[in-house]
Design brief:
Length: 416
């Protein structure tokens, strides 16, 4: 009993803190709220555009067109959305608290965030990397002890611990860093700690870091930087959406020119410049049974009758992953980070994936496939329960109708 009471009291304190924090996040800013936030090691922040807090900005890429392609379900054409993406800039921000797991930085009582995130805050929920919380009405920062560095280039963003977010959203910033002024050539890259813990992250970063020093920052930690360089987003989609909203093509945009240039360098670094044999392999991207489980074994068995081999790319060295995709004429797999590998596929590779009805406007992988000239189609996934929001969909289990899957497979093989 003497051990139970302290544990119960500790749990109640945590619960009370969470409830109180939830209240102050949504409450109007006032004296009481500021006092409570300080007691919780938090403070109210005023969100402003990154450029407004920068002492100087540098144009790294001119404006570009972009094309967003919605998922094309079998037998249907994608919905194409076209637009203009603004110039891409780097920003010199002084006395900033940063984390490579967030796109925004804290400067005093302000949160400096990329324009595109600020513009979409009413609909999109971003990840502040344990440094801040940015809501539809309020913004709250976390007061944490930081190490101090004189200079650094922030190579990160929401979800930087995830392979897709790192390679397709964060790492292009290291590519853009090549265009910074000469006096910044020795400034270190501030990167997520996965870049020293996970071999694939480390290898990918080395393709772009050059001679710059690399400083990993753990999740949950932050760094006070005297002179920090941040970068505009070049590949944007919502990290999450607020309850009641589902992905739509208008949620996505990217700087097509920058992404093509970046992927070209990435491919050359891993595959070289020599011509490769005509792709002939058929691969099925399998995933571990940790979340978003589905009837994978049954689908692998069906696909094997058509010559598809199961592969888990994340278990291979990065160069071997690239070669696997480069040798594939067809790729099948669940929606997920393994589809980064399409960057190494030959133009025109045929692909098949699946999504639930609520994700008919989820344009992340379909747009990347369109940018690279691939032929990607989708079938319907059937969730095992009603989906409440995008955060719920992140973990849900589902199944595919095996007859529909095989029909879609034959449709792809026939080249339709």
């Amino acid at each position: 009993m003497k051990h139970i009471i302290p544990k119960t009291l500790a749990a109640l304190r945590v619960l009370f803190g969470l409830v109180l924090y939830g209240w102050v996040r949504e409450a109007p800013v006032g004296r009481v709220k500021r006092w409570v936030l300080r007691a919780l090691s938090r403070k109210a922040l005023r969100p402003v555009a990154m450029g407004a807090g920068a002492s100087r900005s540098y144009t790294l890429q001119p404006p570009s067109s972009f094309v967003v392609a919605s998922p094309a379900f079998v037998g249907m054409a994608p919905v194409i959305t076209e637009g203009r993406f603004p110039e891409v800039r780097a920003h010199l921000v002084e006395d900033a608290v940063v984390s490579p797991y967030a796109s925004g930085v804290v400067q005093g009582e302000r949160l400096l965030v990329p324009d595109i995130i600020l513009k979409n805050r009413h609909r999109h929920s971003t990840d502040g990397g344990n440094l801040y919380w940015l809501g539809q009405r309020n913004c709250v920062g976390r007061i944490i002890r930081q190490e101090t560095v004189a200079e650094g280039l922030l190579i990160g963003g929401a979800g930087a611990f995830n392979w897709y977010h790192f390679v397709m959203e964060c790492l292009p910033k290291a590519y853009l860093a090549r265009g910074l002024p000469e006096e910044m050539k020795d400034w270190p890259l501030l990167v997520p700690e996965e870049c020293i813990r996970v071999a694939g992250f480390e290898h990918a970063l080395k393709l772009f870091s050059g001679d710059r020093p690399v400083r990993p920052v753990p999740r949950g930690a932050a760094v006070q930087v005297g002179r920090a360089v941040t970068f505009d987003e070049v590949n944007y989609g919502p990290f999450n959406l607020y309850k009641g909203s589902w992905p739509a093509p208008d949620d996505y945009c990217q700087h097509d020119d920058t992404l093509r240039q970046y992927i070209s360098v990435l491919r050359a670094g891993l595959l070289g410049s020599e011509l490769r044999p005509k792709p002939v392999r058929r691969i099925f991207l399998v995933r571990p049974a940790t979340r978003r489980n589905y009837n994978q074994d049954a689908l692998v068995e069906i696909a094997s009758r058509y010559g598809f081999e199961p592969h888990a790319p994340e278990k291979l060295p990065l160069a071997d992953q690239a070669a696997l995709f480069a040798d594939a004429e067809m790729v099948i797999g669940a929606s997920g980070a393994a589809w980064v590998g399409m960057a190494f596929c030959a133009t025109g590779t045929r692909m098949l994936s699946w999504l639930p009805r609520e994700y008919s406007g989820f344009c992340c992988y379909s747009t990347l496939a369109h940018l690279l000239g691939h032929r990607m189609q989708f079938v319907r996934a059937i969730p095992d329960r009603l989906l409440k929001d995008t955060a719920d969909a992140f973990d849900h289990s589902y199944r595919l109708d095996e007859g529909d899957f095989e029909a879609a497979l034959q449709y792809m093989i026939d080249g339709k």
